[in-house]
Amino acid sequence: GEELRQAWTSETALDSLMSKGSVWKYYDGGEVPSDWQDREFDDSAWDEGPAVLGYGENTRVATTLSFGDDPQNKRPACYFRRSFQVDDLAGIEFLVASLGRDVGGGAVLYLNGQELVRSNIGEGAMFSWGGGTPEAQGYYTLLASAESLRQGQNLLAVSAHLSHSASSDLTFDLQLYGVGDVLAGVLEEIGLEESVWSVLEK
Questions:
Q1: Fewest CB within 10 angstroms: 10, 49, 77, 202, which?
Q2: Are 46 and 37 in contact (CB under 8 A)?
Q3: Contacts of 201 (CB under 8 A, 6+ apart)
Q4: pTM as predicted
Q5: How would you classify the pairing of strands 170-179 and 94-101?
Q6: Which pLDDT does position 186 carry in this prediction?
Q7: Model confidence pLDDT, tens digit, residues 133-166
Q8: Contact at 8 Å (CB) between 105 and 162?
Q9: Contact, 120 vs 137, CB < 8 A?
């Protein structure tokens, strides 16, 4: 914890780019066009609401999503988009995301139309099931290169996937930081457990 704390305080350019509980555009009606993750995609017809977004037994859900007409044959995925501003790229080499998702599910993150990182889901079409290993429900820390980050307006898009058609829950939330080489190296060394956030937020 002390090594991580020192790296966190020594960075000269740490940016909190997105907070948990942010308002997202979302689509829960089935398949989406192939360019849905692009910056130029018109999401004006999408609904919006604050995270946590989802459905099921999670009492933290602030925006309830639709899974379709059949609870035993739910839609495989829901889709989310959010713009955010970066005033200065100096010192930001990596992005650290704390991703909230349901047990056994998966997610794919895109930044400005480019795939950023995957969580518990393999390669394949986006209208598909999360096929990864079941993990404990909660938040998962992900580390990715910031090479697709731009000065000015950016667009983060996320597809959240159920593990199977009768899954009881789907939840989504996300927190995003921009970090430098020092902190990214420490994070890789100690592992990306959710416990790192309890250190960084002190």
A1: 202
A2: no
A3: none
A4: 0.82
A5: antiparallel
A6: 59
A7: 434 347 888 889 999 999 999 999 999 998 877 7
A8: yes
A9: no
